[in-house]
Amino acid sequence: MDKKIRAGVIGLGAMGVPMARHLANSGVLDMVWNRTSSTAETVSKETGALKAETPERLATACNVILTCVSADQDLLDVVEQLLPGVKPGSVLVDTSTVSPVTAKRVASSLKNVGAGFVDAPVSGGVEGAKKGTLSVMAGGDSATISRIMPVLEAISATVTHMGPVGSGQATKAVNQVMIAGIAEAVCEALAFGEKLNLPSERLLSIVSAGAAGSWFLEHRGETMLKDSFDVGFKLSLLLKDLLICQDLARELNITMPTTEAAIRDYRELVALGDGDHDISGLIRLKRGID
Ligand code: NAP
């Protein structure tokens, strides 16, 4: 690969747009592509990066391709489209949350054309993406990760190499079990506090100050009390992640009751039409939806 990084971003959603901005600020962003073309046009105008007509065109022009799409099949579709343009020595770094199996499948497709792959799922929410302080859980070989480190460092505060391809996604699965468990506990507890007729603002403030404090409570507590669920992490995406965790647990022959409860809750919310709400929308269910 050339020494100079020419990065392209595919998938300009809630996470992809701020990541693209950070790459532009670091001087490595060359091109962007998004399925909904108008978003790519907006980001292109803002950052000065070119708008690619197709994922293949982006792969031809860039030597580091960062993907951030919704789910496993979306990543596989995008990879199929970009693969004919990928040059030997290029690296695809995927920041979407998908299964370790999908990560290994994509790595194998890229290996067949002489290119590298790093699974690099992220944690830190939309806030972390905007601030460029995400935590990156990387899977791949050390040499490939070192080559793309300027790209990872531009979007994150921490990059941790977890092992071979798939290890990043396995780590993210562990992370999502925790995220779901924390959301279950916080939403259930705040709904409980409301039923006890406690003053909500003061309740939030006192529990946040003690051992019950958490990222979720700090960043989503106030908006939950205001019944505002538009920003952040779509609960349909967390459901997708938890189904990956469920598959992994089945393979290991273990049970994860909290994860199972969260899957039931988010399935119910998706069926009610709340799939695009932030995961803190779970409090609606805990309050009891009429
Ligand atoms: P999002 O706002 O819904 O954006 C999804 C992006 O993927 C959009 O750019 C969308 O294109 C694109 N996309 C979806 N399906 C596609 C397909 N079949 N072909 C091409 N493009 C496709 O989601 P997000 O919150 O940015 O999340 C993206 C990934 O990061 C997910 O895997 C999520 O689990 C993970 N993640 C999210 C957060 C968070 O807090 N939001 C945190 C950590 C990790 P369109 O614009 O055309 O719809």
Q: What do you see in this structure?
A:
The structure is a single chain. This protein is of the alpha/beta class. The protein folds into 2 domains: 158 residues, NAD(P)-binding Rossmann-like Domain (Rossmann fold); 117 residues, N-(1-d-carboxylethyl)-l-norvaline Dehydrogenase, domain 2, CATH 1.10.1040.10. It has 14 helices and 9 strands. A 6-stranded parallel beta sheet has the order 3-2-1-4-5-6, sandwiched between helices. Strand 1, helix 1 and strand 2 form a beta-alpha-beta unit. Helix 9 packs across helix 13, helix 10 runs antiparallel to helix 11 and helix 12 packs antiparallel against helix 13. The relative contact order is 0.10. The model has no long low-confidence stretch (mean pLDDT 97). NADP nicotinamide-adenine-dinucleotide phosphate (NAP) binds next to helix 4, strand 7, helix 6 and helix 12.
Tags for this model:
binds NADP nicotinamide-adenine-dinucleotide phosphate, alpha/beta, 290 residues, Rossmann fold, 14 helices, 2 domains
| Ligand list | NADP nicotinamide-adenine-dinucleotide phosphate
Low-confidence stretches: none
CATH topology description of the largest domain: Rossmann fold
Structural Rg = 20 Å
Largest sheet: 6 strands, parallel
Strand order of the largest sheet: 3-2-1-4-5-6
Query: How many angstroms separate the termini?
Result: 58 Å
Structural class: alpha/beta
* Tally of individual domains: 2
